[in-house]
UniProtKB/TrEMBL annotation:
Residues 92-138 form the ATP synthase epsilon subunit C-terminal domain. GO terms for molecular function: ATP binding; hydrolase activity; proton-transporting ATP synthase activity, rotational mechanism. It is a peripheral membrane protein. GO terms for cellular component: plasma membrane; proton-transporting ATP synthase complex. Residues 8-87 form the ATP synthase F1 complex delta/epsilon subunit N-terminal domain. It is found in: Cell membrane. This is ATP synthase epsilon chain. F-type ATPases have 2 components, CF(1) - the catalytic core - and CF(0) - the membrane proton channel. CF(1) has five subunits: alpha(3), beta(3), gamma(1), delta(1), epsilon(1). CF(0) has three main subunits: a, b and c. Produces ATP from ADP in the presence of a proton gradient across the membrane. NCBIfam families: ATP_synt_epsi (TIGR01216), PRK00571.1-3 (NF001846). Coiled coil: none annotated. The gene is atpC. Keywords: ATP synthesis, Cell membrane, CF(1), Hydrogen ion transport, Hydrolase, Ion transport, Membrane, Transport.
């Protein structure tokens, strides 16, 4: 068994509650606004904003990947907490629903472009990035 100084605890929470928890992780890789960030045990404390992307969590037993849609990450004392707007494990992603969301977002984006509605355009772009992220993670 690994000693506690060589592992980190990872938890991912959303407004709906805890989505993921693992207290035997060796590596976590997240997509921040500044780029990809890898965290191992004993990493310096960090807080960073997340972009729409993936969270990859590795442990001796397995490797998990989640679609994470914004939020922030905080790490200190070998505890990594991701507070996300939404997050889904790869195996929990409903691909048909994500494809439907992508099509709706594309239609809204086209309509917003035609009417020059910048607020609607921004919302549609975010919805489209979220749908594409979920589809990409499901295929990973």
């Amino acid at each position: 068994m690994a000693d506690n100084s060589s592992v980190l605890t990872v938890s991912i929470v959303t407004p709906d509650g805890e989505v993921y928890s693992n207290d035997k992780c060796s590596l976590a890789v997240v997509q921040t606004q500044s780029g990809e960030l890898g965290i191992m045990a004993n990493h310096i404390p960090v807080i960073a904003s997340l972009k729409i992307g993936s969270a990859q969590i590795k442990s001796a037993e397995n490797s998990d990947i989640l679609a994470v849609n914004g939020g922030f990450v905080e790490f200190s004392n070998n505890e990594l907490t991701i507070v996300a707007d939404s997050a889904e494990l790869k195996g929990d992603i409903d691909v048909a629903r994500a494809e439907s969301a992508k099509e709706r977002a594309q239609a809204h984006l086209k309509e917003a472009n035609e009417t020059h509605d910048t607020d609607s355009m921004k919302r549609a772009e975010v919805a489209l990035r979220r749908a594409i992220n979920r589809i990409d993670i499901s295929e990973h």
